[in-house]
Amino acid sequence: KDKINDSNDNNLLKELNQDNIENIVERIKKYEISFSKGNIQKLELIKNYKIIKSIIILILETPDKFISKKKENLNSLLSSSTQNQFLFLQFLNNYRANHNLNLKEQTINIFCEIFLYILNMGYENKNFKIIQLCIILSQTYYHENSDKKEEKDENKKYMINYMKSDKIFKEKKFWNNYLQGLIDEELNKINKNMKKEITGKQLSTAVYSSIFTLIKNMVDFSLDMDFISSLTYEALDTYNLPDSQKVDIVNYLIVESQ
């Protein structure tokens, strides 16, 4: 609700409304991503969004022009606040609805580097939403090598295939934090806004669903099955699930290991 007198700023607001910037700001509030220095000025947030948007478009269209200075500018923005990381990811999340998901390989490589940079910050700050968006988008965008003669789907190489060798995915703490985020999200769906006390049944339902998601994501990242099994059994030891749910999870683990 800040008053904006400058005509350039009015034009900026008009332009960014087309990108549904209001919705993005509301998402930031919804996900309880803290604003630096109290309530950040709305105009500053919008200007950051415009810079981030222009850099993303540059990477998408002319990745060879993403030179070191542009990279430094983007890294500086991303490292300065969580909301800027979210703006970057949310733009790509919105972009996929109406655009081709098949990107240039150079573009994919650049995005992978940026995603890993954001992921590491999300991990350090225990920010589940940032990590979750990175994982979702890494399985959305891909590069398809049209020169090869294999089946079409086999030509697709998703971002996750470029990222999965990074050491962050080999850390148990990363996946344990991710599991806790999944559980909290499921509990929030079951008991909206957590206004009531969580029941044992609600907790076991949330944990049950979350462990399945965890296993799938770890398999998608081609992690060693011993590593996945170890994490899964640790989770089963931590949460007292009904025997029937434990059996379901173990059976799913066996199927995925084959």
Written as H for each helix and E for each strand, in order along the chain, the element string is HHHHHHHEHEHHHHH
> How helical, in percent, are the residues?
55-70%
SS element count, helices: 13
How many strand elements?
2
Class based on secondary structure composition and strand pairing: mainly alpha
Neighbour order of strands in the largest sheet: 1-2
- Report Rg: 20 Å
Overall mean pLDDT stands at 85
Strand portion:
under 5%
Walkthrough of the structure:
This protein is mainly alpha-helical and 258 residues long. 69% of the residues lie in helices and 2% in strands. The chain has 13 helices and 2 strands, in the order αααααααβαβααααα. The chain has helices at residues 7-17, 21-30, 42-61, 68-80, 82-95, 105-124, 128-138, 152-155, 159-163, 172-190, 200-220, 225-238, 243-257; strands at 142-144, 156-158. Strands 1-2 form a two-stranded antiparallel sheet. α7 (128-138) crosses α10 and α11 (200-220) runs antiparallel to α12. The termini are far apart. The model is unreliable at 1-9 (pLDDT under 50).
SSE map:
Elements lengths: L6 H11 L3 H10 L11 H20 L6 H13 L1 H14 L9 H20 L3 H11 L3 E3 L7 H4 E3 H5 L8 H19 L9 H21 L4 H14 L4 H15 L1
Antiparallel strand pairs: 1-2
Features:
disordered N terminus, 258 residues, globular, mainly alpha, single chain, 2 strands
Short description:
The protein is mainly α. The chain contains 13 helices and two strands.
